[in-house]
Design brief:
Layout (H helix, E strand, L loop, with lengths): L21 H37 L2 H7 L8 H37 L2 H14 L4 H27 L16 H25 L3 H9 L4 H12 L1 H16 L3 H6 L19 H8 L6 H29 L9
């Protein structure tokens, strides 16, 4: 008679973890609390905007228009809509202008320029991000506008049949196109810096393989560098878009405000963005007027948050972006 014994479960050997030093515990707790603090601050800002902006949408339109003269008889949504349109239009103009230039500069620094020239040019590009926005506004108002007015006249003369360039061009050109050019210069260092780091992460074996197959320098960039950096370029563009959406002083100093759904980018008094509108209206606002401006800030907060979340999703959706391969 044979007996069978049930197999005993093998116990896993105990893992001998090294003792945790006091410095490790302090650093771990500090990092955790810093991450929690960011979430708390973000939630506090959101709660403040919701609480303070709620009276603007819960109050009747008749009472709002009676107490706030700059609403011009519009409801809150009717007032916010053109501001959202102007904000997005100015940011898109800035992206169209800045993105090709930023990618070209980043490629030149990472793959074409000599090392000494590349380091100096990279330093200059990074320095542009440290310039205050009010300086960009002064530059746009005092130097840029007189320079671009002849170009705007040329656009109106030869391309006025396109609705975007319909004239006559404003003089001085305090238009959404001028604001878009200033914003393009402001977001240029952000897109360039991120794109440059992504281009430098391209695997060297991919570049050498393309060159070994007889590709020229541009063909190597086209078939090896740009496909690898595609998601990173998109995320850099989205980060620049987030900066352009929230810019205040530079836009306020070069743009003649208006509350219209207008695509005429060479006419003054057509559009306005949310941040500049808050800066201009807040000193004279009181009561429900402050609540309306805070509600517009809430709308801008949501738009910027969605743009940055979309950028982070693009960054994380491809493992190649990390450069591990």
């Amino acid at each position: 008679m044979t007996t069978t014994e049930e197999p005993r479960l093998q116990e896993k050997p105990a893992v001998n973890r090294p003792p945790q030093r006091p410095g490790d515990r302090v650093f771990s707790a500090s990092a955790k609390y810093a991450g929690v603090l960011i979430l708390v601050v973000l939630a506090a800002v959101a709660i403040f905007l919701i609480v303070e902006g709620w009276p603007a949408i819960s109050t009747s339109s008749e009472r709002l228009t009676a107490s706030i003269n700059w609403l011009e008889g519009k409801s809150v949504l009717g007032y916010v809509g053109p501001l959202v349109f102007g904000t997005i239009l100015a940011a898109l103009i800035a992206l169209v202008i800045a993105t090709p230039i930023a990618i070209g500069v980043a490629l030149f620094i990472s793959h074409y320029a000599p090392r000494r020239v590349a380091s100096g040019l990279g330093y200059v590009i990074d320095l542009l991000a440290a310039i205050p926005s009010v300086v960009y506004g002064l530059w746009g108002a005092l130097w840029l506008m007189p320079k671009v007015h002849p170009f705007f006249d040329w656009l109106t003369t030869y391309f006025g049949w396109i609705p975007l360039f319909a004239g006559p061009a404003a003089n001085p050109p305090r238009t959404i196109l001028t604001a878009g050019i200033v914003l393009a210069v402001m977001i240029l260092p952000i897109i360039t810096a991120v794109s440059r780091e992504i281009f430098l992460q391209t695997p060297t074996l991919h570049e050498e393989a393309a060159l070994a197959l007889g590709a020229t320098r541009w063909e190597m960039v086209r078939i090896a560098v740009l496909p690898f950096a595609r998601s990173g370029i998109i995320s850099a563009t989205m980060l620049g878009l987030g900066r352009a959406l929230g810019e205040t002083m530079a836009v306020a100093m070069v743009l003649s405000p208006g509350l219209m759904y207008s695509i005429f980018i060479l006419k003054a008094g057509q559009q306005q963005n949310i941040a500049a509108n808050i800066a201009l209206k807040f000193p004279e606002a009181s009561g429900l007027g402050v609540n309306v401006l805070i509600f517009t800030g809430l709308v801008l907060f949501v738009i910027t948050l969605l743009v940055n979340m979309f950028a982070r999703w693009i960054v994380s959706r491809r493992a190649e972006f990390s450069g591990a391969n």
